[in-house]
Description:
CATH superfamily: Glycoside hydrolase/deacetylase
Strand content: 5-15%
Number of strands: 9
Number of domains: 1
Helix content: 25-40%
CATH architecture: Alpha-Beta Barrel
Distance between the termini: 60 Å
Shape: globular
CATH class: Alpha Beta
Low-confidence stretches: 1-9, 11-32, 36-41
Number of helices: 11
Largest sheet: 6 strands, parallel
Structural class: alpha/beta
Order of helices and strands: HHEEHEHHEHEHEEHEHHEH
Amino acid sequence: MAGEDGVRWGRRTVLRGGALLAGGTAVGAVGMSETTYLADRRLPLAGGPASATVGNRRQQVGGGALEVVWHVPTESRTVALTFDDGPLPQWTPMVLDTLDEHDVPATFFLVGQRVRRHAGLIRDRLGRHEVGNHSWRHRDLARMDAAEVHDDLRRSHDAITDVTGRPPRVARPPYGHLGGAVLHAAVRLDYRLVLWSLQMVEGEFPNDPAGHARRIVADVVPGTILLAHDVGAERRQVALRGLPAMIDGLRDRGYTFVTVSQLLRRTAAV
């Protein structure tokens, strides 16, 4: 058997290397690269879920750098409201109606397959809002290899662009799971990866939309990226039914609503 550097290993060498690994020591013929190979030989590292690089040849990496954002440091009382997983008929129109009524912009991280299936729900209704990519069908991208992740996000990107007329420039991986392949695909597509710093907590306020709204209002700070959903179980309607009260409560505290990209353009006050 040959190692990565072309040196042939006998059965005894491999077994000895495994024993050294078990003891936490690597000496002699088994150097760092060999120990890594032995420890991780069952993982698809090159181009797999864990790796943010692909192969040995020139890589396509878009702009060459990737920004990952949870929160934007600013003293300005601004907050970005985001909705994941849509569009779906039972939920998305309700959210859009509320946002329109209160003149609030938001960022919708859309699932490409649902965009194709329910295009009529959002076509011509996202003028004030931003669109983001939330994968093709909401699989866990952190478990997929680099080629699969790129194909998934690219497919969703094209669907969102076709239906909304705007290419997404931000993405959020399902469940907030970041793997190396997710990072590599995002940089290829010139995305910013956007997570969140505060999430709706519907399960803590069953049948209490006003209480849920007060909790969120109390927890928001300048630069918050707030995660909500416009799909899901019935209990999530606690957050959506309380959305008007939450908007009013934050405005009473002096907050302005912006899209994620508008928030990202703000910098901390010096």
